[in-house]
Amino acid sequence: MKIVSLNIINFRSIKESRLLFDGHSLILGPNNIGKSTICEAIDLVLGPDRLSRFPPVEEFDFYNAQYLKSSDVEGEDSESLPIRIEVVLTGLSDKVESRCGQHLEFWSAEELRCLSPGELAAANPPSSEKCLRLETIGIYNREEDEFEAQTYYSHSPTAEPGELDKVGKPVKRLFGFLYLRTLRTGSRALSLERGSLLDIILRLEGARAGLWEKAIDRLRNLNIEEDAAHLDPVLTSIEERLGKYISSDIDGRATKLYVSQLTREHLRKTMAFFLSMSKDQSPVPFQQVGTGTLNVLVLALLSFIAELKPSSVIFAMEEPEIALPPHTQRRIADYLLRNTSQAFVTSHSPFVIERFEPSQTLLLKRDEEACVSCMKISDASGLKSKDFQRYARRGLSECMLGKGAIVVEGLTEFHSLPVAARIMEESNPDLQPLDIAGVVFFDAETESNMSKFGRFFKDLGLTTFSFYDYIERKQEKKQELIDAFDVDFEHPHAGFEALIVNEVCLDRQWDFMNDLRESGDCGGFQIPEERPVDDDLKKLVKSALKSSKGTGWAARLLEGCSADELPQTVVEFLHKVYELFPNVSSADHEPGEVDEADLL
């Protein structure tokens, strides 16, 4: 069973969205773009226990907390603004088809929509398949002064006009949807609270029969006071004082100590799963093990659930990388891809991102009207699947999550430009730090790779910048670079090392050489004790930088410069970046003027 379509209206950070899915989906995007909202929306429709909360939705589940729309007619009541979330499921199991037969429709795989009743003649495989369309509607009930939510069958042919049939919990359990918010899920994974992973396993296995009744009976017969005789005088005194105000005809003691309230709900919250992690450690509550171990426990429970329902488990999992080493991150991603019918994963980790194919990777976009859309990474031009896999851990993932990409042709520039940017930012508070602006440096390794990465980032909606050496090249090659970048910057030197030695003052160059020699970091490179004449010093520095491109020596040289001593070509280029990513806070008021928000 799989989700192929999700429509969201007026829910949390999303005013409107229509998203299409084709199997496993890695959902990417910067913070606050709507990744968690999408997972929460699916949970509202498919999660069997989500709507059992009271209230099932609240003010801030409505976009901008707007659940009422003022009437244009004076004296009329405000109109309700509902939450509407619609999910379309395909690949239905026999049980779902049997249980929901009258509500089935047909999904066109070619047109990516549900067919209308008048199009049923076209409902032929493989161009179409049976589907089930469900929608959750959340509203504010003015009469009851409460927020309400219910899931319905969008296609309800036997319902009264204007009405829809409700979807009950037993049907939702057939969908096998699990929403795993790593920190929150892990904190209660092995508890027996409703909807916890252990509770789900016990329910699927039918292993809960008699659990609560037998536990309550044993606790009721547990005589705590017998092991603490010194409590008896205290309790007797309390009873005597109560007797002055409350009459009782009970023979003997009217009060007793129990370890629990002896209700099923209270036991759910107080029962705890204990485990030992080493020979010298007594069992401790599972919440007290390390965060990484806790997340591995979550994975173990997930594998149990997936094996119980191998053909119908749909996982939505937020940031599986939290507190886990890279090899475990990869294992979780691989497990979800291989052992679930469908997985929705949000992540910022390159170790997770690299496990998904570009066709499975969705980048969210959000416009000024809070309408969220997505595009497959595979739809962006210029980058093949093998490039995506190769560069995922080399800055590609970080760029995809940013707003701008500075593409350079080698490690020397990749190490050096961020140093210059930091020095400029520290000396000028009006410049917005590139990290905060979401501008990322990316090493394309060679100039020949730059155009394809520029086109790729540009297609993803990033502002793109190039920075590369001067060489004689054909006009079509130059035009290719110009077209691939929003800002194309070819510096006037034949190599970054030439730029350094021609634009950094000689005193800083000699300080750098002295530092290499005195620290012993120069290796086999020979550096004289006395400062050479200017031309020889330039040749010496250039030779040193060229001989050790991967060691970051050029960046180390720039580290010793003040903002005024940085190469002017580099400064000129970076100012082009800062101009397109201005510091909004500093532009809102005059220099020296203090905004109240700045003090908070």
UniProtKB/TrEMBL annotation:
Annotated GO MF terms: endonuclease activity
SUPFAM superfamilies named in the record: P-loop containing nucleoside triphosphate hydrolases
InterPro entries the record matches: AAA_GajA/Old/RecF-like, Bact_Antivir_Def_Nuclease, P-loop_NTPase
Domain named Endonuclease GajA/Old nuclease/RecF-like AAA: residues: 1-92, 217-353
Alphabetized UniProt keyword annotations: Endonuclease, Hydrolase, Nuclease
Name of the protein this chain belongs to: ATP-dependent endonuclease
